[in-house]
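Dear support,

I submitted the protein below through the web form. The confirmation email said the job was done, but the results page showed an empty box. After a refresh the structure appeared. I'm attaching both so you can tell me whether what I see now is the final result or a partial one.
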Amino acid sequence: MHTSLSTPSSSAPVAEIRVLFVCPTLAVGGAERQLAVLVPALRERGFAPTVITLKHEGRFFHELRAEGIPVRFAGMRSRADVRGARRALALARAAEPHVVVTSSIDAQVIGHRMARNAGAPHLTVEHGGPGLRRAPHRRALLRLVAPRIDQVIAVTAAQVPGLVALGFRESRVRVIPNGIPEPEPRRGRTEVREELGVEDGEVLALLAAT
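What the results page shows now:
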C-alpha cells in the first residue's frame, strides 16, 4: 500500500516530525555536502533530523555531530554484512522516524526495511545524472526496491526517463533542483581577464572543483 508523505497528524507540531537520513558515508562529495548543509537547516525549521551512515563516517559526519545533529554509524562492511545490517536497523528503531530519506542503492535497500519497520514513508533522492552507468548487480537490486519507494526526488527532469526505466513509478517522481545560494561575484570580469592576460575577444574556460 502506498503511504502518503503527509505529516503524522494534522495537529502535530513540526518539532515532532522525526526525519531519518540514511546514506553509505558522509565523506567528501556533492550529495554528502548537500546533506551536511540541509540537515541543520531542516532542524532550524523545527524538524528533528537524525543521520545514519552505513559503511563510513567521513568529514561531514563529524561536522554534523559538532553542530549537535544526532549522527550514528552502523559499521557495515558490505551490503551482505548481516550483523552490520542488524545494527543499522536497531539504530533506526531507536530514532522512531516519521519519514526515512535515503540516497544510493545500499541505503535504499536497508532504508526501505527501516521505513517499513517504522510504518513510515520512504523517500529517496537520486543525484546521478542521465546516462550514469550502474553495475548489473546494483541495477538488479534497484529494480527490486524502486517500485516500492513512496517518493523519489530527482535533481533534474533529464533523469526522469532513466528512473522510470529502473522501476520507479513516474507518478512518484518529483524534480527538485539542487538549491545553492545565488553567487555574488567579488571581482569584475574585466579585472580578472586582465590579470590572466586574456584578451577581450578570446574564449576563457574555467574549471572549479574540490
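Response: this is the final, complete result; the empty box was a page-load delay. The helical segments are 30-44, 59-66, 82-95, 105-118, 136-145, 160-165, 189-196.
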